[in-house]
Write a structure and sequence with these properties.
The complex is a heterodimer of chains A (518) and B (296). Chain A has 518 residues and is of the alpha/beta class. With 296 residues, chain B is an alpha/beta fold. The chains are: A alpha/beta (518), B alpha/beta (296).
Chain lengths: 518, 296
């Protein structure tokens, strides 16, 4: 195999499976590789009296002409409460399908059992996209797939769809409310999940679109996220998801004193560098530290009388509280993380639903991440070049999603990574991350409980922080401390096979993930 | 004497808490081998804290590093000392101190250990925790018992139990004891440190109590959770008016010195030694809170 060193100083194969790979060169270097967007197939001559309602997924599968080897997609708005993917896969298994590729926007533990079975019995052959955690992450990391998975950021997934690199034959869209013509929304219905942002590109670019709902209403819907123009069929089932399980992972403010300190210092850093000011914009993800950050930020804004123009979510009740208190003028939501966020979308006219393309696609004519002043993001590891890993821990196994990490880091004026310097017995600040997901040139600061490192590229920040009593330290110094406390980082037992390619948001390859030998 | 506004107790048997203890900016860290460690864990905690101090891998920032040992009357106290006395240890908190003999005994043991281990004799400071009625009544003798002794402090929970009372939000149960300990400390020329505030969620209550004891004259207050440190520091941070006043006192004193005058005055008020002392304490706290530039 022929290799090159890319712009993140990683070894990348020149081609794989006969497909040439573009090495990563920089966050804003590689332009789109095609002149035109990819187009979905034209199918219909819409006639009066057209019937879209079907009684079963099986019938829909037959009508759309799904065949072995095709690619099907799903959204993850139900997070760990999703029932749609399991329903569809079990139907396809029963019908005897083989060698399918699934292209979900993310995967959750509730899908592990069925998906693993389908991977082992050949119904599903390949996975496109990120969100490889738990047993699926392990399965992929152990080199069980024939071809490497392309791990993409949220924005990168939409880019790949628009460029035709990720072609979807049939999109199955779980729709909490649908009318009989296939106008779809996630804010109404017994299984409301909030936005349908992840499915918007799928609806536009997939050859066929099947909506699956448990709440069919008469036309018209007073608001919809996906229009009937793009929907072939609507299947009505008993239940598509459990909204209670949308709350997944660490969606509570941390009670750990070290993590609280990290959150507090991150707020101080953002304020002292001048990014928290009247009319600013921000995004902070879920996770204990980020939520604590939002709370401390709200406290500071209240105290100083500062109001944000908008904040983007991954929306939680903490952001909704800020909207209600008028600390934030507008909320934009691409994903709801709890039921409060969904309720707020339904009633608050300043709470806007946005598509993932609008939010993060780098090949758009305009994208939300580029308007961010301040972003706070997590990491599994950060290295001395400020490169960030979000997908693997030091075990080497794929365990966490990318989400919008690299999109937001690239767009935001100040990108702060919050991470405990040590987790258990392992250092989080290392010489070289196991996997590069977000390149160091898009990261401005790393906040740990034992000090804050500023990217030397940001001399302006260092100047602004002169005289500050924040614990500013060199990143190498932090790394040395982490190593002396833990005994350093051990190389995972990697094999030769490439289990996954980490695709940067612009379509270039920033790193590879090797199989872990067991 | 060293600034000791906040003093964080860290359970001696919890490795991650011990490793992270230095990151919160407490003036004093007290690794606890006594009440927060159950009898079955005593040995493990002693070895863990001993290793932590000897290894020197973990940085505790600018915090003073101290250990609360078990009382010497228990089977653990002496063993604790053997394990923890080393280069890095800066102070020992002795719980249940009731008489000057308790302090003298510890001082002698410590001196012998320092000699045996080749450490500078007398460098490790002593702090007496007074938590019985008898201890309160002997507070002055305790505070004067050793050159190493730098502060006496009150153990609120145990003392309340010994008194047969209950802790109330207004602090009345401990009012006299706090006064007596403060009197004893000042008479002996050592610091007076206050007890913990046990409701870790009630930061307003903690702030009120800390302000009250500061106004009484206390030098600092203990914390049982890292989140309390910032609140305590806030309570012990002087107001702008106080800082301004203290600056003027020091200025007047310096002008008087320059002019060769033996008497300094601020307006019509004479500046005597206690006023200077108070002003210095205010400025020291202001500096610790980052309100003064480094040169001041």
């Amino acid at each position: 195999m022929e290799w090159v060193i890319n712009g993140a100083e990683r070894r990348i194969p020149v081609e794989i499976d006969g497909v040439k790979l573009l090495p990563y060169r920089g966050p804003f270097v590689t332009p789109p590789q095609r002149e035109r967007k990819y187009g979905a197939r034209l199918y219909h001559l819409s006639r009066p009296g057209q019937q879209k309602i079907l009684r079963s997924i099986e019938e829909a599968v037959k009508r759309v002409g799904l065949t072995d080897g095709m690619t099907i997609s799903f959204h993850h708005h139900f997070r760990n409460g999703d029932r749609v993917m399991n329903m569809v896969l079990e139907t396809l298994e029963r019908m005897g399908f083989k060698n399918l590729t699934i292209a979900p926007s993310s995967l959750f533990p509730c899908q592990e059992e069925v998906l693993l079975r389908c991977l082992k019995n050949g119904v599903v052959k390949h996975i496109e996209g990120g969100g490889l955690r738990g047993k699926i992450g392990r399965y992929v990391s152990e080199g069980n797939l024939e071809r490497p998975v392309r791990i993409r950021s949220h924005g990168g997934r939409v880019r790949a769809i628009e460029a035709g690199e990720l072609h979807i034959d049939v999109a199955f869209i779980g729709a909490p409310t649908a009318d009989e013509m296939g106008n779809l929304t996630g804010v109404y219905g017994p299984s409301a999940c909030g936005p349908l942002s992840y499915s918007m590109a799928d609806a536009l670019y997939a050859d066929r679109v099947v909506a699956i709902t448990d709440n069919l209403v008469p036309f018209p819907l007073d608001r919809f996220s996906i229009s009937m123009e793009y929907v072939d069929y609507v299947v009505v089932v008993d239940k598509i998801g459990n909204p209670e399980d949308i709350v997944f992972g660490s969606l509570k403010v941390t009670s750990s004193p070290t993590r609280l300190k990290i959150a507090k210092d991150a707020v101080r850093l953002a304020y002292e560098t001048g990014y928290v000011k009247e009319g600013f914009t921000f995004q902070a993800g879920a996770g204990g530290i980020s939520l604590a950050f939002v709370n401390f930020l709200a406290e500071l804004m209240r105290e100083k009388g500062i109001r944000a123009r908008w904040a983007n979510g991954g929306t939680t009740s903490y952001l909704v509280d800020m909207l209600r208190e008028d600390l934030v003028e507008y909320l934009t939501t691409a994903q709801a993380f709890d039921l409060t966020a969904i309720d707020s979308m339904r009633v608050d006219k300043n709470h806007l639903e946005v598509s993932i393309g609008f939010y993060a696609n780098p090949h758009n004519k305009g994208t939300l991440v580029n308007l961010l002043d301040l972003a706070v993001l997590g990491a599994t590891e950060v290295d001395e070049n400020f490169n960030v890993n979000t997908v693997t821990y030091s075990s080497g196994y794929l365990a966490e999603p990318v989400g919008g990490h690299s999109d937001v880091a690239a767009g935001s004026k100040l990108t702060i990574i919050t991470v405990p310097l040590i987790r258990g017995r392992f250092p989080s600040v290392v010489e070289e991350v196991t996997t590069v997901v977000t390149p160091g040139e898009t990261v401005d600061a790393v906040v740990t409980e034992r000090g804050i490192a500023i990217n030397p590229r940001r001399e302006d920040l260092l100047e602004r922080l002169e005289g500050s009593d924040l614990p500013i330290r060199d990143i190498e110094e932090l790394r040395r401390e982490a190593y002396s406390l833990t005994g350093g980082k051990k190389e995972p037992p990697f094999g030769e096979k490439i289990a996954a390619l980490v695709e940067y948001r612009d379509g270039t390859i920033i790193d590879v993930v090797r199989e872990v030998k067991t | 004497m060293r600034l000791r506004r906040s003093r964080l107790y860290v359970p001696g048997n919890n490795p991650s808490m011990l490793v992270n203890a230095g990151v919160y900016g407490a003036d004093v860290l007290t690794f606890d081998l006594e009440d927060s460690v159950s009898p079955g864990e005593k040995l493990a905690a002693r070895l863990l804290v001993g290793e932590l101090l000897k290894e020197k891998t973990v940085d505790f920032g600018r915090s003073e590093v101290t250990v609360r040992i078990n009382p010497l009357s228990t089977p653990y106290g002496k063993k604790d000392l053997l394990e923890i006395v080393c280069e890095r240890l800066e102070g020992i908190y002795l719980p249940k101190t009731e008489s000057e003999e308790d302090v003298i005994k510890l001082d002698e043991l410590l001196t012998r250990l320092e000699e045996e281990k080749g450490l500078e004799v007398g460098r490790i400071k002593l702090f007496a925790i007074i938590e019985t009625a008898k201890g309160v009544l002997n507070a002055y003798q305790i505070a004067s018992a050793s050159k190493r002794l730098e502060a006496i402090t009150i153990g609120g929970e145990d003392l309340t139990a010994d008194l047969g009372g209950e802790r109330t939000p207004d602090g009345m149960t401990l009012f006299t004891a706090r006064q007596m300990i403060l009197l004893a400390a000042r008479a002996a020329g050592v610091q007076a440190l206050d007890t913990v505030y046990s409701d870790i969620k009630d930061s307003d209550g903690l702030y009120q109590e800390a302000v009250t004891v500061r106004k009484m004259g206390y030098d600092g207050k203990a914390a049982i959770h890292p989140s309390q440190i910032e609140v305590i520091h806030r309570a012990f941070t002087p107001t702008e008016e106080e800082i301004e006043y203290a600056r003027r006192v020091i200025e007047a004193l310096e002008t008087a010195k320059k002019e060769g005058s033996g008497v300094a005055a601020l307006g019509s008020k004479m500046i005597d030694r206690p006023i200077v002392k108070r002003a210095e304490r205010i400025l020291e706290r202001a500096k610790a809170a980052g309100l003064l530039s480094r040169e001041e």
